[in-house]
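Fold it.
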Amino acid sequence: MISVGIDVSKGKSTVCIMKPCGEILESPFDIGHTADELDSLISLIKSFDEETRVVMEDTGHYHLPVATYLSSHNIFVCCVNALRMKKFCSQSIRRAKTDKIDSIKIASFGITYWNELVKAYPSNVIYDELKFLARQYYQVTGMLVKSKVNFSNLLDQVMPKINDVLSNQGENHKLTEFVNRYIHFQNILDMGEMKFTSDYCKWAKKKGYRLNERKAAEILALAQNGIPTLPNSQSVKIAVSEAVKLIHSIEESRNTILAQMQDLCNTLPEYSVVKEMDCIGDTLAPRIIAEIGDVRRFKNKHSLIAYAGIDAPPYQSGAFHASERHISKRGNSYLRKTGYEIMQSLIKHKPADNAVYDFIQKKRSEGKCGKEAMIAGLNKFLRVYYGKVMEFYSEH
């Protein structure tokens, strides 16, 4: 029984090799994340006559090169949840922390929980790509939100309240394209009523928007009564134009990422099953599959719910039994976010004879607040998702 503890960091790792009773075979030493140095570690591990297992923290993506390379050479690798490892390492009274000390503690974890170590198996490449793209999708969405907030702040200073009259909806960029054309209320006033109305109608027709002279009159009234706080200068024109370009560019990037996710999902057998579920279309289906991954890796529906972090662990002490527990939130926050969007879609569309929607309404009728009822609905949804996808795989 030999435990190899690896404390992974960016570009390098610290390795300690230990036997039971704290006997250290190899004092902590550093290795780089290169094929040559990992090959030397593999040779060292295979030189031992006893069963050897490698233990490391699941540290985002830093551990992946090491775990993947060692696994490809038929070495037992266990990736431990970072929170669980942190709690194990914090048991010491003197909380000294260095890479060498951490590698010793990780090796000690392997000895202590030897019979509980689970071998890490490489997942399906498609699911890995989907998860990677989903993370990029969220990053780009965050950038889009910030750019829209900046654009809204600019509007308040050059065309106050214009977003009460015009708006962007889906692929419709009417507001941003209008602002990019006219830039400032002063430009509208300088054109005059007749010229602006004619120009607005021609622009709307060219862009494929509905012709509406009444809308032009509303905009003109806003321009006459509005009080812009920025001058109609070249600097303001550049700022507004670049803000519009940024929004359109980020939206295009996000759509490209989503299109690739859809292409990948088309190769997965369960994609058609997921899309058949109410209120899950071409946008939400790839995202929920990306976050759940291969559902067959969960031993039951409760494991999937725990993975999402919406389980409520029991709490009992003596005669006290807690009847109301908060969700653990020890799980995939992106899965919770995507699932919550699905619940919002169900609430909006109110599908008939839908078990999840009916369950949400039932919880609301019992006095549960909106978010609490929706989380309960998400719990129900994951159970339904697990059941349908597993049934599909069992039949095919």
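Residues 271-395 form one domain.
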